[in-house]
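Mods, move this if it's the wrong board.
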Amino acid sequence: MKRIVALLTLLAVSVAALAQSGKDIYNKYSDLPGVEAVYISQSMFRLIGRIPDIEVNDKDVNLTSFIKTLSGFYLISCEKNQTAAKEIYDDVKNYIGSGKYELLMESKDNGDIVRIYSLGDEKTIESFVMLEQDDSETSFICFEGKMNRGELENILAGTLSH
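Not the wrong board. C-alpha cells:
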C-alpha cells in the first residue's frame, strides 16, 4: 500500500511539474520581496498595432506580425543572494527539463550562464525561454504564443548578422 501511495504522489508531482508554464512561474514569484517582475498580456500585444521598424545592425526589422502572435511575456529577475533566486532557477530548470524544450543556445563566461530554449515544432514556436544566472542575479524571460518559426528565424538572422 505504501508503494502505491508513494507512486501516486510521485505521479501527481510529475504531472504538476509538467503543467507548469511561464505564467505559473511568474505568478509564483512576482509578488515576493526583492523580485522584479514584468508581465505583458495578449491584449496589450493586440493594442500595440503597428509599431515602427527598428534598426539593428543598419537593417530595418519589422516586429509587428511577430508581436501579434504573442499571448504572454513574463520576466522575473532577482538578486542572486536572495532565497528566491535559487528557487526561481530550480523551478525554471524543472519547467524546461520536462524534455519538451530544445536548447537553442548556451553561453558560459566566468560563472555567468545564459541558456535559450524553445518549445514547438518545425512550423510554430509555442514558448521561447531565456534563463540567465550571473554573479549578481537570476533572470527568467518567457515569450508564449503561436510564433511562426520561419518568421522568428528571419528576425533573428536580421538582428544577429553583421
